[in-house]
């Protein structure tokens, strides 16, 4: 099985998070091949040069060659590249697992937080684009922890069950 791991990769925090989660995937599922774009120096070494066509072709080819897309949804908004990769995977009928760990999703039963929704600029919850999340839900699911994500991979391939 081949997995494409989609997340922002330009900050140290994102790069380290990506590497840590992918290391766990590789350790847990040694027969699964995980593509992590930040490891592709031909398009992501920012000291070198890669134009938009090179980046689009390289990443799209890898998405289309995958059996599963993992998409990290955290951040102020879903990363633009990740949203594009979700669209490509959806159109190609590739299952998608979204990872959404933002703590602002919590408190849906807290009446004060619900009441605050009636006041301008007092939304206590984080917003994710509904079109993008809908594409994921039509062809996969959204999980709220790395542990749940790691366990969910097992559902998508016999090799991962070993």
Key features of this structure:
about 160 residues; alpha/beta; Rossmann fold; five-stranded parallel beta sheet; about 45% helix; globular
Task: Provide the fold topology.
Elements: E1 2-6, H1 12-28, E2 33-35, H2 41-44, H3 52-64, E3 68-72, H4 80-91, E4 96-99, H5 111-116, H6 130-138, E5 140-143, H7 146-153
Parallel strand pairs: 1-2, 1-3, 3-4, 4-5
Helix pairs in contact: 4-6
> DSSP helix count?
7
Q: How would you classify the helix and strand content by structural class?
A: alpha/beta
Main beta-sheet annotation: 5 strands, parallel
Low-confidence stretches: none
Q: SSE order in H/E notation?
A: EHEHHEHEHHEH
Assess the beta-strand content as a share of residues.
5-15%
CATH topology, by name, is Rossmann fold
Oligomer: single chain
Query: Which percent bin holds the helix content?
Result: 40-55%
Under the CATH scheme, which class? Alpha Beta
Mean pLDDT over the residues: 93
CATH architecture: 3-Layer(aba) Sandwich
Number of strands: 5
What best-fitting shape do the alpha-carbon axes yield? globular
């Amino acid at each position: 099985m081949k997995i494409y791991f989609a997340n922002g990769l330009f900050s140290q925090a994102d790069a380290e998070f990506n590497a840590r989660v992918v290391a766990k995937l590789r350790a847990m599922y040694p027969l699964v091949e995980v593509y992590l774009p930040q490891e592709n120096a031909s398009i992501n070494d920012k000291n070198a040069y890669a134009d938009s066509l090179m980046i689009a072709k390289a990443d799209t080819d890898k998405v289309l060659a995958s059996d599963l897309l993992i998409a990290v949804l955290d951040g102020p908004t879903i990363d633009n590249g990740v949203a594009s990769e979700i669209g490509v995977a959806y159109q190609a009928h590739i299952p998608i697992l979204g990872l959404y760990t933002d703590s602002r999703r919590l408190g849906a039963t807290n009446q004060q937080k619900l009441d605050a929704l009636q006041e301008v600029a007092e939304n206590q919850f984080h917003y994710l684009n509904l079109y993008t999340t809908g594409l994921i839900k039509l062809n996969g699911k959204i999980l709220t922890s790395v542990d749940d994500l790691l366990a969910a991979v097992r559902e998508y391939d016999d090799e991962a069950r070993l």
